[in-house]
Prior knowledge:
This protein is an alpha/beta fold and 510 residues long. Helix content is 35%, strand content 15%. The chain has 17 helices and 15 strands. A hairpin with a 4-residue loop joins strand 12 and strand 13 (307-312). Helix 3 (46-57) runs parallel beside helix 5 (131-149). 49% of the residues are buried.
Amino acid sequence: VSLPRFFDRVATSALPLLPAAGREALTSRLEATTLALAFRGNADLNAGFMLAVNLAARLYPQLVIEAPDELAAEATTLAQAINPNVDFGGKTTHRLSFADAPAESDTVTVFATGWNIVVDGARNGTEPAAPPAALAAGALGIGMIFRAVFADWLERGRTEREPGSFNLITLSEWSDPPVPERFAVGRVHLAGAGAVGEAAILTLGSATVEGELVVVDPDTVELSNLQRYVLTRDSDEGVAKPALAKRELEKSTLNVVEVTTPWGRDERSAPGQETVLTALDSGSDRIGLQAGLHRRVYNAYTQPTDIGWSRHEAFGIQPCLACLYWPRGSRPHQYQLVAGALEQPALRIRAYLASNRAVGQPLAPPLQLPQTPSPPTPEEVIHWLTTPLLTDIAPRYGLDTETQQLWSTKTLDQLYRKGICGGGLVRVDGVEDAVLVPLAHQSALAGVMLATQLLIASDEELRTARPHETEGRLDLRRRLPISLTSEATKRDGCLCSDNDFLAASAARWG
Ligand SMILES: [Zn+2]
């Protein structure tokens, strides 16, 4: 058996999409699959082909490489570095081909020209592929292969040719925006060097990008990460995630700064950064990052049904990053806003605000709580009366004893305005939701889109060509759609309609 040693994680990510299959059936199917990766393109597609090999080696135990000698050797080395047990050869059951013409229906064909990505020979073009388009073609191709290999278990499996295309800049079916030779991005922060972040790093390294990339992630690589972290090799367990960025971009024109502390912990990821790419794991982490009021934020995510990306360049005017993750419901009161930001029970927060009690003190009896449909339990009330709020929020914000002392005499209102709105406290944890692990190609394409948004923003012509909508989405469980734009909306009660945040943002950026 040559399944990757992180097969547990493979099963965790694949089985939720394949409810009809069990673990054993999944194992047998993978063992019965031999995926050929064929290259019939020009050098501009090399990076896309290598990403397809990279992703394939994380799932399929038998591969056949059909490529010119040098590229084939490179591909073989990469696949073995990812899964040392991988088998080469055998009778091909499925084929992903990088070519500009369609093939027989059991072959998925992908191609990229300019910023266009083409599946199954839908269109043709002679313009060399922009590097991110080549990478997107590789990830999309592996997505199509997944739908073909597991077609009988999927609602919308791939059973025939599915010609389609889309443009990475305009998100329409076909466009011809220019492909600049280089991009100058200035100083950029990357919050989170996990699966999405690594694919963004790979994308930035594939083009000529000049600037500085500050990579912020406190974690090291774990075995389970190998299932979908495109910069990792089998030997990378225990390596700091920012170090992988440094390694990948060593020969690039991007200067990498490695930061191994959580987001917001020190001045290198303090509030008010110029440009931030967010590849964080949870909505509350992103709300926390948005509270730091950076000038421009670009975001990408994976979720069970699709992947998405968004841009946030005009706080208070366009939907902010927190709008995408703001809890639904009617407009919250100030205490609900604070409770949301701190992830604390609203009644506890309300009592602190009403009493002006210092956050370093527990609430004092008698506790007069309004009638609500979900009152706190007696244990909760006892906890509120014996434990200071600051003690409970300290771990979330990583506050050491000294910082806690500084804040202990402040009221919650002061803490909220200075610590949260002003960004003095906010930091983010990289906690991964183990229940919803995306497949490798989903995270990879999200990362490509994250980096692409930055490249677009750095170029005036590309900026003009991008869609008016600030959010995009792609459901990789389906055949290629024509329209990928999605209109994000400003959310009532979000940070971006809060007067304190608006004033702080205006003071900082004008
Ligand atoms: Zn907002």
